[in-house]
Request: fold
Amino acid sequence: MIRLRVIAIIAGIVLVSACSTPAFADAVLSVSSPASVVQGSTFILDVNIFGVTDLSAFQFDLSFNPIILQATGTITEGSFFQSGGGFVPGTVDNTLGTITFNANTLLGPGPGLAGSGTLVVFGFMAIATGTSALNIDSTTFSLLDSTGANINATTTNGSVTVQGTTNVPEPSSLMMLGIGLLGLAGLTQRRTIL
Reply:
């Protein structure tokens, strides 16, 4: 009787273990850019993936404030998929502030990619002062595994602050201004003596 109970308990543990699915952490799709840039400068923004397993394809849209930033149109494939992907750079709309349909897929059968890395690199120009959100549209992005199933993922959006430029005169300009003011003061004093 005890032997049957032990066998039943072991069988139950094996059955529960076989039927349960392992708990995998969600992948994270993240925007990475400088915290601040100077107005008139260009900079790059990366969209990275962290902690993914079996990634075979992705698609996402990126949005930004077009009053503060303009996409330069430079969109390149990140290093993560360069082992055999079919990269599709997104479509830039600097009026709406979007870059839509950025995508990549592994070509041919096989397992997907695992790990972390850069998916896409974007070029931007800072055109006005202020802060622009840099957002991955959570309603349109998708990550697919090698079977075509969705991979659970969260997004981490970013932002960049554009600072104005300060024109500081060169020391030689300040010196010339000082000499001019001294000369003007000397002429004024000379006229008052005469």
In short: Residues 2-24 have pLDDT under 50 and may be disordered. The radius of gyration is 29 Å. The first helix runs from residue 2 to 19. Residues 173 and 179 are 10 Å apart (CA to CA).
